[in-house]
Design a protein that fits this description.
By secondary structure, the protein is an alpha/beta fold. The protein has 22 helices and 15 strands. Helix content is 46%, strand content 15%. The structure holds pyridoxal-5'-phosphate.
Length: 503
């Protein structure tokens, strides 16, 4: 199977090349030429497999130049028991005594307690194999600009991975105390972290500038290195996410929630860059019986409007919310969906994306809107409602969820109220509540005290809810700080060259 570009139909590249390159030269994204199909018999056969085996089964159809042994090696290393606690990287937990019953797919049992681990634990293995397959002898230098979750997950994923180095830039005053501590205590010989004097946009712009600066690339090339990206538009980050929708369906069959052949489920996803929900869409196209894909947003509701009206308009106020990983106004992965539902019309997609970058707005045609509405439902909720949902879900169902998951829970409740749909539903849970302890504590505790430290809030949350602090967060307070670098936003490339000992 080869991969093609969403803005140029003539592009054809191998899976390994798509993963090494990350993004197509014309700015388009790589997508598989065809989607492999799975029958009910295939799903039934997967029911009794482990998560690692399920992942290997699906990956092999997308990575033809990888041998079965290589794929098994990659997924076994990624989802090893010392990385994902509890014996299942993506368990489905029934939450039944709430006003609206649901099945919560917990994707945060990895080393950084957020769902980005599901992809970023696997991507480094796929990338190093891909480098070898494309006969590239160079060391990959991964540059990341982060507003919090991605940076830490990428550091954990790439730590001590052969032939890679990783440098993460974050805005000095733009991440939570927990996220800052998670990054600055990062272990590994090939990792580096640097705060910049600026906001997230400055960090992102700085990284993009370094990527396209020929003098920096040349210096790297001459020294046996090349840039690579761990960004969520890399196909190697999307592919691992398709797996857990298959896995959730298999688990629901095994749990007896699904009893009939081809029985449908709904999937509700708290959405930012549209990667997670796009993976659910691909799973549906590949044969997982999914009825509705429910797209949940916070106050940055650009996707809610788009999926309901066909107008994408990023010209709006940006809201800093308590679900910060969904504070996004340009959802990059939407491009892959549009390419698919327009019948792979690369010219149309290129035109809309051109309008988006020129004016911040585009409108799809009536036919495309009808298809979107058939596949998706979309709604949003604000911070106050998010906290209220955390409080009620804990009170009524004894289930503690984080701020991102709570947005999905609330939007699902809105959906059921509006439609009366009783299809069994998977609500995707993307972070541990302990990662956003401040907001979660203030939602569930009557004696919330804002003046205590982040780690004290973690302890207070455990006491107030009688739940377990995940090991990676419990151990964090004792970890020594390894990085305290700060640089000006205009000095990012010279910081990089220093770190690589090229200056
Ligand atoms: C990244 C992230 C999201 C958004 O996922 P997308 O794939 O960007 O839509 C939601 N919740 C959490 C906790 C995240 O870290």
């Amino acid at each position: 199977m080869n991969y093609k570009g969403t803005r140029d139909a003539s592009i054809s590249t191998t899976a390994a090349q798509a993963i090494v390159q990350g993004i197509s030269k014309d700015g388009g994204l790589f997508v598989p030429e065809t989607l492999p199909q799975y029958s009910h018999a295939d799903l039934s056969a997967m029911k009794n497999l482990s998560y690692v085996q399920r992942a290997a089964r699906i990956l092999r159809d997308f990575l033809p130049e990888f041998s079965e042994e290589e794929i098994l090696e990659c997924v076994s290393a990624a989802y090893a028991a010392d990385k994902f606690s509890g014996g299942h990287p993506a368990p489905v937990v029934p939450v039944n005594n709430a006003s609206v019953p649901m099945n919560v797919l917990e994707l945060w049992h990895g080393p950084t307690c957020a769902f980005k681990d599901m992809a970023l634990q696997l991507l480094p293995h796929l990338l190093t194999h891909s480098l070898r397959k494309t006969k590239c002898e160079k060391t990959a230098v991964i540059l990341v600009a982060t507003s919090g979750d991605t940076g830490k997950a990428a550091l954990e994923g790439f730590k001590d991975v052969d032939r890679t180095k990783i440098l993460v830039f974050y805005p000095e005053n733009g991440v939570s105390p927990m996220q800052k501590h998670q990054m600055n205590t990062q272990e590994g010989e090939n990792v580096c972290v640097c705060a910049i004097e600026g906001n997230f946009d400055d960090a992102q712009t700085g990284v993009k500038k370094i990527f396209v600066d020929p003098s920096v690339s040349d210096t790297l090339h001459q020294n046996g290195m090349l840039f690579s990206s761990a960004n969520s538009i890399n196909w190697g980050r999307l592919l691992p996410q398709i797996v857990y929708y298959f896995s959730a369906y298999c688990d629901l069959m095994a749990q007896g929630v699904l009893t009939e052949e081809g029985q449908k489920i709904n999937v509700v996803v708290p959405t930012g860059n549209f990667g997670n929900i796009l993976a659910a869409y691909y799973a549906k196209k590949m044969g997982v019986p999914i009825h509705k894909l429910v797209c949940a947003s916070n106050a940055n509701n650009v996707l809610t409007e788009f999926l309901n009206t066909g107008v994408y308009d990023r010209n709006r106020e940006f809201h800093a919310t308590i679900s910060p990983s969904m504070d996004i106004l340009i959802s990059s992965n939407l491009e892959r969906l549009l390419y698919d539902i327009t019948g792979e019309d690369a010219d149309k997609v290129a035109d809309w994306m051109g309008q988006l970058s020129a004016t911040g707005r585009y409108q799809v045609d009536a036919d495309t809107l009808a298809k979107l509405k058939d596949l998706f439902c979309a709604a949003y909720c604000d911070d106050a409602t998010t906290k209220e949902t955390i409080r009620e879900t804990f009170r009524d169902a004894k289930y503690l969820c984080d701020t991102h998951t709570a947005v999905a829970v609330n939007v699902y409740q809105q959906y059921v109220r509006k439609t009366g749909d009783t299809t069994p539903t998977v609500v995707v849970s993307t972070a541990s509540p302990y990662k956003f302890a401040d907001a979660v504590l203030s939602a569930v505790s009557d004696s919330y005290d804002n003046t205590i430290s982040e780690f004290e809030k973690v302890q207070a949350l455990a006491r107030a809810t009688n739940t377990q602090i995940p090991a990676p967060i419990a151990g964090l307070a004792e970890k020594p700080v390894r990085f305290s670098n700060v640089c000006e936003k205009d000095s990012m490339s010279s910081f990089l060259l220093q770190m690589l000992h090229l200056k």
